Amino acid sequence: MIKVTLHGAEFFAKHGFYPEEQLTGNQFVLDIDVEFEPNADMKGDQISNTVNYEQLYTIAELEMLHPRKLLETVAQSIADRIRNDYPFLQNIRVELKKLHPPLKGRVAYSAVTVTNNK
After folding, report:
1. For helices 53-64 and 71-85, what crossing angle results, to 10°?
2. Mapped to the 3 state alphabet, what secondary structure does the chain carry?
3. What is the pLDDT of residues 63-79, one digit of tens each?
4. Of 8, 35, 49, 113, which is the most buried if we count CB atoms within 10 A?
5. What backbone torsions phi and psi does residue 49 show, to the nearest 5 degrees?
6. Which CATH number fits domain 2-117: 3.40.50.300, 3.30.1130.10, 3.30.70.250, 2.60.40.10?
7. Which residues contact 18 (CB under 8 A, 6 or more apart)?
C-alpha cells in the first residue's frame, strides 16, 4: 500500500453558512491523504505510476473557488473529484479546517473530515 499526502495546503475562500462569511471570506487549511495498491513497478520512477500531489492541489484549488455554505460540502466535492480522477484509490481522506471561525470566543479552527473508502 502506498500513501500520498498533501498537508497544510492554505487557501483563502468564501465558504460559510452566514452571508457575511461569503462576502469577507476566511483562511482555510486542507489535508489530503490517499492510499492505493501500486499496479506497476515503483522502481520505474514514473509519476504515472502514482498519484501526483500537484494534481491533488489543483483539484482542491478548483473546488475552493466555488463558495458553499457547508465545509462538509466542500470537503465532499474535493473527495469526489479525486475519486473521479483516480478511481483506483483504496482510501481518500480530506480534512478541511476553517481558521479562526467567527464565533463568540477565540477558536483556532473548526474542521470537517470526509473519508471515502472503496
Report:
1. 140
2. CEEEEEEEEEEEECCCCCHHHHHHCEEEEEEEEEEECCCCCHHHCCHHHCCCHHHHHHHHHHHHCCCCCCHHHHHHHHHHHHHHHCCCCCEEEEEEEEECCCCCCCCCEEEEEEEEEC
3. 999 999 999 999 999 99
4. 35
5. -95, 5
6. 3.30.1130.10
7. 102
Q: How many CB atoms lie within 10 A of CB 111?
A: 17
* Separation CA 83–CA 102 (nearest Å): 32
Instruction: List the grid coordinates of 33.
Output: 491523504
Domain boundaries, the chain: 2-117
Q: Model's pTM, two decimal places?
A: 0.90
10 pLDDT higher than 90:
yes
Cell of 80: 469526489
Distance CA 105, CA 109 (A): 11
